[in-house]
Design a protein that fits this description.
The longest helix has 32 residues. The protein is α+β, with helices and mostly antiparallel strands and 231 residues long. It folds into two domains: 69 residues; 146 residues, Histidine kinase-like ATPase, C-terminal domain (Heat Shock Protein 90), CATH 3.30.565.10. The strands form two sheets. It has a five-stranded mixed sheet with strand order 2-4-5-7-6.
Length: 231
């Protein structure tokens, strides 16, 4: 019986990561050596610096691809330590630089504590950084983007909800029918597909408003179960 596509997927990703990482590392090393040449003029130095930045971006994308493959295959497990999701999102938001040059600002509001979970802090931090940047980079300035935090209870289950949208669209995004999470956004590499997997790994879900199109592109909603017993 032929091996299924799903079974081939993890080793194929692993092979692709290896084949991309090796030449990219070699090119990056040579570019760093060239950058130290004292005989370069300003134009040449600038070109080498830009090439080095692009090479570093390729290496980062390969690393993201590797993480996706490992998470999908179960080769790595998410760390588990107690944290407050709302405190983490506030800290991430305070350090996001995306959009500031266009006067697009990120504001955090709503419930500021009480979202206790056992989580992989490093991976969740990266996930929310990508989510915030995805919305900020597509907003024309000047504008304000809001990350609104709230806790929802359904019987014995409590969940932390974070709605990320333009200030005037938060309520509409929250009330809209859930749609498919739009992770195909330029300029972010594989950060959003990776973020979706990290959120799912914490028992959560991420989506965008189903419609209209403008709101779908300008909103992301995250829901993660919480425990009031975590300390």
């Amino acid at each position: 019986m032929a091996t299924s596509t799903v079974e081939n997927y993890p080793p194929l990703l692993s092979l692709a990561v290896h084949e991309f990482r090796t030449p990219a590392s070699v090119v990056g090393g040579y570019l760093r050596m060239l950058a130290r040449d004292q005989d370069l003029n300003d134009r040449q130095r600038k070109m080498i610096e830009e090439a080095e930045k692009s090479c570093a971006r390729l290496v980062a994308i390969v690393t993201e691809l590797s993480d996706i493959g490992k998470l999908d295959s179960g080769a790595i497990a998410l760390a588990r330590q107690p944290l407050d999701l709302f405190a983490l999102t506030a800290d991430v938001a305070a350090h996001v630089q995306e959009g500031r040059d266009r006067e697009v600002h990120l504001v955090v509001r709503g419930t500021d504590a009480g979202a206790a979970i056992m989580a992989d802090a490093s991976r969740l931090r990266s996930a929310f950084d990508a989510i915030f940047r995805a919305i900020l980079r597509e907003r024309p300035g000047p504008a304000t983007v809001v990350a609104e935090r709230r806790i929802e209870r359904d019987g014995a289950t409590s969940s932390a909800v974070v709605v990320v949208a333009a200030a005037e669209s938060v309520a509409a995004a929250y009330e809209a029918a859930p749609g498919v999470f739009d992770e195909k956004r330029g300029g972010l590499g594989l950060a959003l597909p990776l973020a979706r997997r990290v959120i799912a790994g914490h028992g959560g879900r991420i989506w965008s408003a189903a419609e209209p199109e403008e709101l779908r592109r300008a909103s992301i909603i995250i829901r993660i179960p919480i425990s009031e017993t975590v300390s």
